């Protein structure tokens, strides 16, 4: 029973970690897009 709980917790950790990574990538892409737009507006 304890082993099951541990594996479940590990799966939850992995899932949340991958979701965080995805979110981080989205934020980086978003900020890059804004930066490019700002540069284009200046020119």
UniProtKB/TrEMBL annotation:
Protein known as: Uncharacterized protein
